[in-house]
Specification:
The radius of gyration is 28 Å and the shape is globular. A seven-stranded mixed β-sheet has the order 1-2-3-4-5-6-7. With 324 residues, it is of the alpha/beta class. The protein contains ten helices and 14 strands. Helices cover 33% and strands 26% of the residues. The chain has helices at residues 2-38, 105-108, 111-120, 135-149, 206-214, 236-240, 264-269, 275-280, 301-311, 314-317; strands at residues 53-57, 60-67, 71-76, 81-85, 97-99, 127-131, 156-160, 165-167, 172-178, 186-197, 220-230, 250-254, 289-293, 320-322. The N and C termini lie far apart (83 Å). The longest helix has 37 residues, at 2-38. Bound molecules: zinc ion (2 copies). One zinc ion binds next to loops. One zinc ion is lined by residues 102, 104, 181, 233.
């Protein structure tokens, strides 16, 4: 009896155990399913979905990647702005403001992806500046994806014309300037804006300056420091359109073609720049760093590197970064 009871008891305990296990498993499965369904995707975990090169220059980090007809995307985290969205590296999602140079696919294909991801991550809708001619088309594109993906596509699209200025903050102003490509296109210059005491007040004491200010006198003048210029795709007139481009601390330009046998007339007709164009302007660049990018895929990266390094004049050698 005892044995039987024990036996029964053992059998009971085993079956109880099995029931508990299966309940536990069901609960775990349910929990896992709930995790997958409700846990928001994390930005803390790296997702390596696109190549990103980086360069530190003073207090700016320039991150990006760019090859002609492949994909172009750039951002400067410290300024909280990005340029072009050919692809959106996962880490670029936190950048809330973008300037699109033109609507060729290698510069804009990831725009709907980026907008949808920001929404999925419960981030503020982004602000996207782009050539005014492209706004209707991009709006229609987002609407089409809203239907296809069945998710909202919240974004503020703002069209710009050459010469327009955008005040991003008290410290940052962006100017759009004309570039020359095969479709409407813009380059962008980011200024840092500072207030500087006007020279006529330099001899005054702090109290005197304060009194003047309180009496309504504007004692300071605006000082603008060109921080970053981004050209997107352009033939040389885009480089020459706006003098400040040559003075930006960091200039990001396209250098699609470098081989000696490529004809300038054809390259310019298709709205691109050749290494010869850069060399012809060597004396004009006052930039601290010039990032040469958007190289064609016709040549192997090693060939591009060799050609550019061999032909660059001394005055540019240390400053030109070959972005491959
Ligand atoms: Zn391109
Ligand atoms: Zn293009």
């Amino acid at each position: 009896m005892v044995g039987l009871r024990l036996g029964r008891g053992f059998a009971d305990r085993v079956s109880e155990q099995r029931a508990t296990d299966s309940r536990r498993q069901t609960r775990r499965k349910r929990l896992l399913a709930a995790d997958i369904e409700t846990t928001p995707e994390s930005l803390d975990h790296p997702v390596d979905n696109a190549p990103v090169r980086a360069l530190q220059h003073q207090n700016l980090t320039i991150e990006g990647y760019s090859r002609a007809a492949v994909q172009s995307y750039w951002r400067i985290p410290e300024l909280k702005v990005g340029f072009d969205l050919g692809v959106q590296p996962w880490s670029f999602m936190t950048t809330p403001t973008w300037f699109v140079s033109h609507t060729h696919l290698d510069h804009i294909a990831a725009l709907p992806v980026y907008v949808a991801r920001r929404r999925m991550m419960k981030m503020e809708p982004p602000t996207i500046y782009l050539p005014a001619e492209a706004v209707d088309g991009v709006e229609a594109l987002l609407r089409a994806f809203q239907r296809l993906d069945r998710g909202r596509m919240p974004a503020e699209l703002i069209g710009l014309k050459p010469g327009d200025e955008v005040e991003l903050s008290r410290e940052l102003v962006v100017k759009a300037f004309a570039t020359r490509h095969t479709i409407p296109s813009l380059g962008y210059l980011v200024w840092e804006r500072r207030k500087k005491l006007k020279p006529e007040y330099h001899a005054l004491t702090g109290d005197q300056i304060r009194d003047l200010r309180l009496s309504g006198v504007e004692v300071s003048a605006e000082l603008r420091i060109p921080k970053v210029a981004y050209l997107g795709d352009t033939s040389p007139p885009g480089l020459d359109a706006f003098d400040e481009t040559y003075r930006a601390q960091v200039l990001i330009l396209e250098l699609t073609f470098v081989a000696p046998n490529e004809r300038a007339s054809v390259i310019h007709k298709y709205g691109h720049t050749h290494l010869d164009d850069l060399i012809a302007r060597a004396d004009r660049f006052e930039n601290e760093v010039i990032i040469a990018s958007h190289f064609s895929t016709r040549l192997h990266p090693d060939q591009i590197q060799r050609i550019v390094e061999k032909r660059l004049p001394e005055s540019l050698k240390g400053r030109v970064k070959i972005w491959l």
